[in-house]
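hiii so um. not sure if this is the right channel but i have a protein structure encoded as tokens and i wanna go backwards to a sequence. like what aa goes where. can anyone help
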């Protein structure tokens, strides 16, 4: 309560005091609001991060496993006793041999000692986090983003029994690994992991390495999805700081909005720097799955995969894989509109038109393992 007894100019002072308190209150409210806003961003940020890769899980260190897959011969098809003839009835008759040829090429490149540094990787926690498990049907699926992975995850969620139809799975749940009933290989004990790696049907999907990184760039740095603020706020600035040549470009706030974000050339320089990238990638944690090599994601030379699908021929690879894994009578892969997965050279040329030959050369070398292992031709039109 205001006190009027004080002194002569009391009322004026008191009035002043009230005003002061009023403004203090307004100021305090402002601060609280701002703190709340900051906190909510922080909470939101942190809520989403652990959903994929909790700090608890991270601190648990994994011994690097040595998997001795003693499998002299690849079983032509998976156990569920699907005969080759049955497979051939819905996929082109030569598709089994296409997949076999791919696996033969993969095995040959894996053995090539001059490519060893590009083709082998340790089997560690990061890698085991990428592989999803369906025990009921004995399937392991290594996740490689930007090739229709969400659909495969849905297929496996249905197979694991949490939902009965692919259409019933709420979209946000697909990537919520606490709730979707799709365990990662890393959640199992070492002997359980080995047992599954030796006996389950294992597959993953790849695409042309340069188209893949264009797709990752567009999706994560041009579209800047609001639900994934870390690409714009943490990853892009870190790459720009280290790899942008003209630093003043970054600080010039009069620059057009699009020029202030991560440019394709910055991203390419970062990707071409195999050595320098390592340090940044540790900070970027699991988000690097969108652009690190397939070798590092799935260890194709260190795990004996049964099938490697190609995004470019997904319309034939998807039904083939379902058949080969013995699950084609249980689930189907959604129809793929013709042409959308086809390699687009015009697009690749236009993205790389502003990139120096030297940077493209480094980039190619960084991804050389992926090109060679999966039979993607060296993009001579960019390199020579
Ligand atoms: C496949 O099924 C046939 C007959 O149903 C059976 O004789 C054969 O042992 C099975 N093969 C495998 C690998 O399970
Ligand atoms: C190993 O890879 C190199 C580089 O691609 C190639 O020149 C060489 O012919 C390969 N060696 C074998 C045995 O395939
Ligand atoms: C592979 O990497 C090691 C260590 O980084 C290096 O000493 C060796 O020369 C590399 N080998 C090839 C064939 O590039
Ligand atoms: C290939 O990419 C270019 C440039 O992005 C685009 O204009 C064109 O429509 C694409 N072609 C096909 C067949 O998708």
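sure thing!! here u go:
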């Amino acid at each position: 309560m205001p006190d009027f007894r004080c002194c002569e100019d009391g009322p004026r002072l008191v009035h002043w005091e009230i005003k002061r308190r009023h403004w203090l209150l307004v100021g305090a409210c402002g601060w609280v609001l701002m703190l709340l806003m900051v906190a909510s961003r922080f909470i939101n940020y942190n809520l989403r991060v652990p959903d994929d890769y909790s700090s608890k899980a991270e601190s648990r260190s994994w011994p690097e496993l040595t998997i001795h897959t003693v499998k002299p011969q690849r079983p032509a098809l998976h156990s569920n006793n699907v005969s080759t003839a049955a497979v051939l009835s819905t996929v082109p008759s030569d598709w089994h041999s296409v997949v076999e040829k791919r696996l033969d090429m993969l095995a040959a490149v894996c053995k090539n000692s001059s490519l060893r540094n590009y083709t082998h990787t340790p089997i560690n926690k990061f890698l085991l986090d990428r592989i999803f498990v369906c025990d009921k049907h004995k399937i392991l699926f290594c996740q490689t983003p930007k090739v229709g992975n969400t659909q495969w995850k849905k297929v496996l969620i249905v197979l694991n029994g949490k939902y009965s139809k692919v259409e019933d799975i709420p979209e946000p749940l697909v990537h919520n690994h606490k709730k979707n009933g799709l365990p990662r290989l890393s959640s199992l004990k070492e002997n359980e992991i080995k047992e599954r790696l030796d006996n389950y049907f294992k597959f993953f999907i790849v695409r042309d390495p340069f188209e893949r990184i264009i797709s990752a760039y567009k999706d994560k740095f041009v579209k800047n999805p609001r639900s994934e603020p870390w690409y714009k706020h943490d990853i892009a600035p870190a790459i720009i700081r280290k790899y942008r040549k003209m630093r003043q470009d970054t600080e010039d706030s009069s620059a057009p909005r699009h020029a202030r974000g991560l440019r394709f050339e910055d991203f390419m320089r970062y990707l071409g720097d195999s050595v320098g990238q390592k340090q940044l990638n540790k900070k970027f944690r699991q988000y690097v799955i969108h652009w690190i090599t397939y070798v590092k994601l799935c260890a194709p030379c260190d795990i004996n995969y049964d099938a490697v699908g190609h995004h470019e021929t997904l319309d034939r690879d998807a039904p083939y894989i379902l058949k080969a894994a013995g699950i084609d009578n249980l689930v189907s892969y959604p129809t793929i509109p013709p042409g959308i997965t086809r390699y687009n050279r015009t697009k690749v040329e236009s993205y790389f038109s502003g990139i120096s030959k030297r940077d493209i050369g480094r980039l190619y070398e960084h991804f050389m393992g992926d090109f060679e292992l999966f039979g993607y031709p060296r993009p001579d039109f960019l390199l020579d």
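oh and The pocket of 2-acetamido-2-deoxy-beta-D-glucopyranose (ligand 4) is lined by residues 344, 346-347, 350 (CB under 6 Å).
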